[in-house]
Amino acid sequence: MTYSATGFGSQDQNNAKVLQVENLETHFITRAGVLKAVDGVSFHIHAGETVALVGESGCGKSVTALSLLRLVPNPPGEIVGGRILLDGDDLLEMSQSEIEDVRGDRAAMIFQEPLTALNPILNVGNQLSEVILRHTKASKREARALVLDMLKRVGISDPESRLKAYPHQLSGGMRQRVMIAMALLANPALLIADEPTTALDVTIQAQILELMRDMRDQTGAAVLMITHDLGVVAEMADRVIVMYAGRIVESAPVRTLFASPAHPYTLGLMRSTPNLTTQRGELSAIPGLVPTLAALKDMEGCRFAPRCAFASQKCREHEPPLENASNDQSVRCWHWDQVLASQVAV
């Protein structure tokens, strides 16, 4: 497949679907019973496109990301249903050795905390070279040259000396750049980034996001970004998927979602985010908490109903389907038209 740089907001929807997830089900088998962390999730990502997966902690974002590469600890986790198609190949049908060949090669992941994700007893050079040696027939000398080139591309100064450094000897921003370099070394078709800028100061965060955008445009990779930061979403994403309690509750292009969210939960997330262009005073807060996985077992109706200002008796008794609010916006809510109307009235 030939990729071309697409730039923010200009994704060519005629590009092939690099990733297609169909009705993904990931459960945790515990003494308390079967806990449904990911419950019937479906979405896709095109080449050169960035899709953001957002929601509060506990909504199932990271478990979804880990499920894509079959990294959910088993036991107690288990992917019990669905399909994960990477360029048409179902990752759930692969053997253990086959999925290990995919990881770091055709698909790669940038983890949330690089200090714990990187091996503390191996220097940077050895860890990065391992990716090349594992997935290609390059010699050690060729692998070293490729690693040096990638370190330069991700903006690491004096890469020769960094090869000998250990993770604890690098700053947080530098470790994150090393993680990005590791993920991109094999030129993957799919890049998964789980909270890639958490705990970084705003200056380093901006640099990391710019780097990721440049790398995406250069390689044409499909990017799945896991985040709860709507500022990052606005800057990076082409499309947004909102998760709540293990299910997708809304999906739309980024501009559509920010202009007219159709789900009460999405609207609550928007209104709880600081906005320098308005004079709203105190921020709104979504009442209550995300239900625990154990609580979901006995819950009927819409999972957001206990926290929702639009909830009716129908919401408490029957869970809504995911339906189209427009050609490019889908929502799981019985009263999405009221949600949209409430914003027009404000």
TrEMBL record:
Classification via PROSITE patterns: ABC_TRANSPORTER_1 (PS00211), ABC_TRANSPORTER_2 (PS50893)
Name of this protein: ABC transporter ATP-binding protein
Membrane topology: Peripheral membrane protein
Source organism: Pelagibacterium lentulum
Gene3D superfamilies: P-loop containing nucleotide triphosphate hydrolases (3.40.50.300)
Major site of localization recorded for this protein: membrane
Family membership noted in the UniProt record: Belongs to the ABC transporter superfamily.
Keywords for this protein: ATP-binding, Cell membrane, Membrane, Nucleotide-binding, Transport
Transmembrane spans: none
GO molecular function: ATP binding; ATP hydrolysis activity
